[in-house]
Amino acid sequence: NFILVVTLNPEEVEMRPQLLDRFGSSVEIKGIQDPVQRVEIVKLRGKFEEDPTAFIQSYANKEHELAYRILQAQKLLPKVEISDEILLINAKLSIALEVDGHRADLIMMKAEKAMATFEGRSYVTIEDVEAVAKMVFLHRLKSLPFESSKTLDMEVIQSIIQETVHE
Description:
This protein has about 170 residues and is mainly α. The chain is built from 8 helices and no strands.
């Protein structure tokens, strides 16, 4: 198994939907709008530039903790269970969002299992569905000509989840 990380700026590259569907998940990156957080980012970057080795060393413990957590998640992954109810929610989301094919359903299942293991659980929850839905579906939404950006209404996702849970 391997992970391919591709960085694309949608303003620079337009891809056909058939190609976008090949990407398992995507994230939207935006600039920070909080001035206090922006100042903190600039200060941290300044510290790195002053002494990269010391800066990297200051985060060594956090890096080791994260690496350990990822290794534990990898060990737990084969044991993760996902209920038919969660799989049904995934299918309903794909249908409601008018996503073609079944790749999104498969990626949802894999991403939910990964999220569960990262949280130390051997079972998938509704919260895992909500946590990964935007990453899996956003780039699969059909866009209109001249549309500048896509949005995924999380209320739609939550209503489908609630509707399925209460059936």
